[in-house]
Specification:
The complex is a heterodimer of chains A (223) and B (484). With 223 residues, chain A is an alpha/beta fold. Chain A has helices at 3-14, 28-31, 38-51, 64-74, 87-98, 116-121, 172-178, and strands at 55-59, 79-82, 104-107, 125-129, 132-134, 139-142, 158-164, 168-169, 188-192, 197-198, 206-207, 214-220. Chain A has a single domain, classed as NagB/RpiA/CoA transferase-like (Rossmann fold), CATH 3.40.50. Chain A is globular. In chain B, strands 1-10-7-4-2-3 form a 6-stranded parallel β-sheet, with helices on both faces. In chain B, strands 8-5-6-9 form a 4-stranded mixed β-sheet, with helices on both faces. The chains are: A alpha/beta (223), B alpha/beta (484). At the A-B interface, helix 1, helix 6, helix 7, strand 9 and strand 10 of A face helix 2, helix 3, helix 4, helix 8 and helix 10 of B.
Chain lengths: 223, 484
């Protein structure tokens, strides 16, 4: 018999004569204390994300590219990784075209194997969008795509994330229901709640362990 | 560090009692644990400020785990079916040797030389680092705490905070000696040193290994939580990802992870959520530009089906590995994680390890508890740890001819002498005549009771019967009242 058959046979034998425990999932427990008014959502998200060193800027659909350029200049970042074919990628390209002397734009447009060294050693910042955010836990929802692959929000030391204020949801349960996650998950889905951190040495909190050292969220308000 | 050197782990010497005794005398160790556990307890308490929510959430967590276990074989098959459909290869292993064999065969198929590992307690069960090193394959830990203990040839002393037994000064010396960097006690600098070394390793690694926090049967999703990003790196950068997990980690529905996730991160670290919640449902698709080309899941039994067979002991498998029981344990706080000598320390270690290695190998584990109940009170999935410890104590002294074979190594502490004494004690206390006779002699012959009665008198004064028994005095008191 195979390991699988042995394990399953043992487990089934142990359950002989028992009935499955009924599903009494009470969603009120994970929704009622974590429900907010539209006015509360941004402050709630902000409070939690800033508590773990996330930098948050309120901006608008109109003016975020300008703010992004300013933030890059302030940090003296030489280049920015973008997804040029996405609507926000196009906005960046357009703004850059009209404003000379901005940091170089790079595109994640080929398999990682073809430029892994450059991604690891010479890509100081990236810009990705988000699917939304969760106010209850202060988390960005990120579904990597072909245009914005998994490593785009992980390897560059500074990660800029765009978040539409209208896409901030109350809690994780609501997000799963609304987007019907149970019907199909992408190869990789992420909740990101701040820059990378660790408290593994003497419980002293240090940022920038393995992932981005800085997470900068641009919240676009006038939707 | 050279690439494929064998990194031996410092051998665990002596038995549990000796190690515990030594740990108790180690002032530095005790300080490190005391301050860490105090802080972890305070953080947990603060994150569960609403007792009503906390208790109802714990009840829900318990119900979700109980439901998953009540359908475990079906859910495992469902998980395998959906993962396979998603392009993930599922392997089953009854023993750690089988699991290592599976991992090695994947490594050989890819002619891999370097493995980078996210945090995984199951891989500790497998002693994967050691097994791979023997085959000339470097297996490097990437969690900062795990990296530190591996560098010092140690094992984790806590399941969430592997290097909690060390202070910054000790890590500074270690990095200076082993990595050749300038001595610094600055934690930020130490972390940046680790980041630099490990970034290169993520870049080079042929295979990434990780654990799994929850495996969702409904969607075929492997959910991993972490703060550092090493888990995402290990599961995303190398071309092959191998996840190893115990068969009990499966949950039925995606929504089940909402309360479990909240219970896990708040119980473990007092955080509303970890920095990263990484949900993996398949390898890189044809049109995608990164992510592993291959994803494997190894489902390990290693004694779990033995715990599963008994409806009381089955509750051991509710565990979501938050570590709250050890953070609140007065024994763990005083002796630290290494004294237990096994992969899982503290209260959860005491109830899970006997199923993995046999009760005979860890006979003192169930009794290394004051049964204060703190572990059971804080457990986010309501495992009745004190009750299970008492149960294991019973299994520990079960007569060898008992027809009830519950677990490997049961009855290893059985003693005919002890059994005789307890039988006599039971008889004495259930027969009024015998009890009175005993009371009569015990009070009159009190001068003859020994001053040295084994382990008891190591820490206590010897018990002396009173000159008169309570019964006797009560009888006299009642007689006097009758006179009035």
């Amino acid at each position: 018999m195979s390991a699988k058959q042995n394990i399953l046979a043992k487990l089934r034998n142990s359950l002989t004569g028992t009935t499955p425990v009924p599903d009494n999932f009470d969603e009120a427990l994970v929704t009622v204390p974590y429900t907010y008014t539209p006015e509360q959502r941004i402050p709630q998200l902000r409070k939690l994300m800033e508590a773990v060193h996330t930098e948050i800027h309120l901006t608008s659909e109109q003016s975020w590219p300008e703010l992004l350029a300013q933030l890059l200049r302030d940090r003296q970042l030489p280049s920015l990784l973008i997804a040029p074919t996405t609507p926000h990628g196009k906005r960046v390209t357009q703004h850059w075209a009209n404003n000379p002397d901005l940091p170089t734009l790079k595109a994640y447009d080929r398999p990682v194997e073809e430029w892994k060294a450059e991604l690891f050693n010479d890509t100081p910042a990236s810009l990705t969008t988000t699917l939304g955010a969760i106010a209850a836990t202060g988390s960005l929802i990120i579904w990597p795509t072909r245009e914005e692959p998994r490593l785009m929000s992980l390897v560059p030391p500074v990660h800029f994330a765009l978040l539409k204020a209208s896409e901030i949801r109350d809690n994780f349960y609501q997000v799963q229901q609304e987007y019907e996650w149970a019907q199909g998950m992408p190869t990789n889905a992420l909740l990101v709640s701040g820059p990378s951190k660790t408290a593994d040495i003497e419980q002293v909190l240090a940022y920038g362990a393995h992932g981005p050292k800085d997470l900068v969220v641009l919240i676009l308000e006038d939707q | 560090m050279s690439t494929s050197t064998l990194i031996p782990t410092v051998a665990v010497e002596e038995d549990f009692r000796t190690r515990a005794h030594e740990a108790l005398g180690d002032k530095q160790l005790r300080n490190n644990f005391r301050s860490a556990m105090d802080s972890l307890m305070a953080k947990r308490a603060a994150s569960f400020s609403d007792a009503f929510e906390r208790e109802h959430l714990r009840a829900l967590g318990n119900a979700i785990r109980a439901r998953a276990l009540s359908k475990l074989p079906d859910l495992l098959e469902q998980l395998e079916q959906i993962l396979t459909r998603n392009g993930v290869t599922v392997h089953w292993a009854e023993t750690v040797d089988e699991a290592n064999g599976i991992v090695l065969s994947i490594i050989r198929a890819h002619e891999a030389r370097q493995v980078i590992k996210g945090k995984s307690m199951v891989s500790e069960e497998m002693e994967m680092n050691h097994v791979l090193a023997e085959q000339g394959v470097e297996c490097l830990e990437s969690d900062m705490g795990e990296f530190i203990v591996q560098l010092d040839h140690e094992k984790p002393s806590h399941i969430i905070m592997p290097a909690i037994h060390k202070n910054a000064g000790q890590v500074a010396s270690l990095f200076h000696d082993k990595l050749g960097v300038e001595y610094t006690k600055d934690v930020d600098q130490l972390i940046q040193i680790g980041r630099k070394v490990l970034r290169q390793k993520f870049f080079e690694a042929d295979i990434g290994v990780s654990g799994v926090n929850f495996a969702v049967a409904e969607t075929g999703t492997l959910l991993l939580v972490e703060n550092e990003g090493n888990g995402r790196m290990s599961t995303t950068v190398p071309p092959v990802h191998i996840a190893v997990t115990g068969i009990e980690k499966v949950v039925e529905n995606l929504r089940d992870v909402v309360p479990l996730l909240s219970l896990l991160t708040r119980s473990a670290l007092g955080q509303p959520i970890t920095t990263y919640v990484n949900m993996i449902s398949g390898p890189r698709k044809a049109h995608e530009l990164d992510g592993p080309q291959e994803v494997h899941l190894v489902l390990l039994d290693n004694g779990r089906s033995q715990a599963f067979a008994d409806s009381e002991l089955r509750q051991t498998l509710n565990c979501i590995r938050c570590g709250a029981c050890m953070n609140h344990c007065p024994v763990y706080t005083r002796i630290g994680g290494h004294a237990y000598g096994e992969v899982y320390p503290g209260p959860i270690g005491k109830i899970i390890t006997p199923h993995m290695v046999g009760l005979a190998k860890v006979p003192d584990h169930p009794s290394a508890s004051s049964l204060c109940g703190a572990c059971g009170e804080v457990c986010p999935v309501k495992i009745p740890i004190p009750a299970l410890l008492r149960r294991l104590r019973e299994e520990n002294v079960k007569a060898p001819d008992s027809p009830h074979q519950v677990m490997r190594g049961q009855g290893s502490k059985y003693s005919r002498k002890e059994r005789f004494i307890w039988n006599a004690w039971a008889k004495l206390n259930s027969s009024p005549t015998l009890y009175r006779l005993f009371g009569f002699f015990a009070t009159r012959l009190r001068a003859l009771t020994p001053n040295n009665i084994g382990p008891w008198t190591q820490n206590h004064s010897a018990p002396k019967p009173a000159a008169r028994s309570l019964h006797d005095m009560a009888r006299e008191h009642l007689a006097k009242q009758g006179d009035r």
